[in-house]
Amino acid sequence: MRIAWVLILLSMSGACLAQPVEDAIDATGVKRLVIDVPRGEVEILGHSDTKIAISGYLDEAKTNFIFKVSGERAELRVEMPDNREWHGRQSTQLKVMVPQSQLAVWFNGVATDVLVSGIQNEVRADTVSGDLTLVDLTSTDSMRGLNFSSVSGDISLSKVKGPLVLSNVSGDIQGRAESRDVAVNIISGELELTLGAIEKVNVSAVSGDIHIVGEVQSSGSSDIRMSSVNGEVKLTIGGKFEGRLRMQTGPGGDIVNRLSKHEPESSFIGEEYLKATIGRSGKNEIDLTTVSGTLIVEKP
């Protein structure tokens, strides 16, 4: 019992070392907010006010804290020691409220889990080992879209609309987005992404499995390109597809075509390839390639 009380007191004293913070600044005229939090948990939420408001706790190991506006740019930074001696200390826990449509948000972290929600503007978020959770975001081409990357953290999306760029090394990417223009680069993680009507999709992977679900546009055209080295590449495409279908593997790769009746052919060195025109219109294009993995195209 005595040991338990000692542990509780120690944990409470450790928590008290983190500096509480609550502040707000007028964001009138601000076009971009740059947030830099090396570790901890950060929530970035859109609201109807014109102020940028923060609340929570700052990292015990911080060397400096900056929260200011300079012209059209606002900054929120938690600066940390360069030697990375952060272990066993209370990390940053912050809630950041921003005008939902007025300004772009750029976030940079290292070991930081981030939730971004309710923003209608350009959003960029980069972490190393932290997870990114993205909910209810909207952007356009003129706003430069939505750009998210992590090295080993996972990226999760829900109710995301607008041009989308995703990058990951060993983490997974999954979720839903209503994005006509999507670019994804993933090394060894898994990708599971459900889209609406597709205008342009470009996905590149090394050893991870990738699965894209979407629909051909009812008007206009769809250009879908997916490639891997040795993972599985799977495309589930709804709507009426008319256009060119191209699938190509290296030696040892496999092709599974469930979109049409066309069968793949094989070369003398074991490559498989399929080139077909489906329907009368050539406005749509699917191009799937792999070195030694499996290519699958199918209807829902």
UniProtKB/TrEMBL annotation:
<feature type="signal peptide">
    <location>
        <begin position="1"/>
        <end position="18"/>
    </location>
</feature>
<feature type="domain" description="DUF4097">
    <location>
        <begin position="31"/>
        <end position="296"/>
    </location>
</feature>
<keyword id="KW-0732">Signal</keyword>
<dbReference type="Pfam" id="PF13349">
    <property type="entry name" value="DUF4097"/>
</dbReference>
<protein>
    <submittedName>
        <fullName>DUF4097 family beta strand repeat-containing protein</fullName>
    </submittedName>
</protein>
<dbReference type="InterPro" id="IPR025164">
    <property type="entry name" value="Toastrack_DUF4097"/>
</dbReference>
